[in-house]
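Human: Respectfully, please carefully check these tokens:
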Amino acid sequence: MSAKPTADGTPQKRLNFDVPEDLAREFKAYAALNGKTQRDLVLGFMRRCVHRTPPATQDPRDSPDAPRDR
């Protein structure tokens, strides 16, 4: 089942997956400290992966090769 379309009618697809609690907590804090939503950060990452574009800022944590076991 798909998620509700956006206000402009763009179809949406809901993704659900489990992540380690500590990573989820750090990610939530990272988003808040940067004035972004978690959704916006994930969508930006997904767009960069699909379109192979570099991130707007060269934050090493945005790299797919960055260590994830903090």
Observations:
- Residues 44 and 50 are 10 Å apart (CA to CA).
- Residues 21-55 form one domain.
